[in-house]
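Pipeline run #58 for the internal structure catalog. This entry was flagged by the ingest filter as a single-chain record with no existing model, so it goes straight to prediction. Upstream metadata was stripped on purpose; only the residue string is passed forward. Reviewer on rotation: M.T. Logging verbosity set to normal.
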Amino acid sequence: MQRITKYPLLIKKILQHTRDTHPDYQSLKDSLTRTEHLLTSVNEAVRATTRLESLQRVFDKCCVDVGERVRLNSTSNCLGTRKLIHFGSVFKNKGSKELLAILFTDMLWLSRVDKGRYGNKAIDLDARDFDSIKFEPYRDPFLLNNVFPTENNKNSADLTFSFSYNDRNYSFHCQSNKEASDWVDHLNDAIRNATLLYHSHYKTSLPDPTVAGQATITLRIVEGLELALPPDEKSSSLFVQASLLSHVQKTPVGAPKWDHTIHFVVQDVSTDKINITVFKEHLFSPNVSLGKFDLSIQKLLKTGGPGPWNKRLILTDTNSGMVNVCIMLRYHGNR
């Protein structure tokens, strides 16, 4: 790091002793611009990392019941690398105790604040005495893919920004019109981006009803057994995702007794395979695969009989795990 900071200084000294008619003069100027840009990028990255490390200590104290270990300086569920967008002091009601609001690319998190020796100055994540502030739990983070902005006048006299979350409205007060306006802009942009990426990632693709295919396969996903869960995690928030060619469907999220039926149009019974994967849903990090199974329709037909078939699928890419399914195949046309 120290060596990087010296490069612009060295190049500047060389430029001071280089005539502008020298053939290397322009190359030195270009190098100076690039090294200064690199140094700025490195400083911003270090600053962002330091901020997240400070916030991580607070998060670990205030958000102990979110159901998973959350690492702020990591990948979110499906929105890529988590980034800090905006932060500041807000208030639930006029005259109420101060809250620290932190907006990330995937969530809005608030914590109660007891400044103590920190005084009445504005909270600065980069301040050396930031750790002297006492933080207390307020509520679990708001996931932005479930947040909906409400009508809000940026120049309103009440200095608020508001939104709805899980059919409940929330409103927070700011200390100035500019702060309220900034929160509205940052929050609306973050919600728009998170919602777009979330639905793009989790969209399901149903069979095209205009494509006849050879047959329709009905897959009733009954339950999962002996699934290898991540350490310290309960057997809830599990789901199965099944795909055939470009068509993707999934069960509801819950305990591993889904009893959920899905349908696929089979184009070629001799080559088509259904990929079945069990996932542990995480809210703040990527979902964890608990194993998969490739169901060959051709091998299924070789087991004999017209069906239905009750199968216990042994999952691969895992230490243990099975999924009980019931399968039916109906040919199209006269067959």
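catalog note: The chain has a mean pLDDT of 88.
catalog note: The longest helix spans residues 25-62.
status: ready for reviewer M.T.
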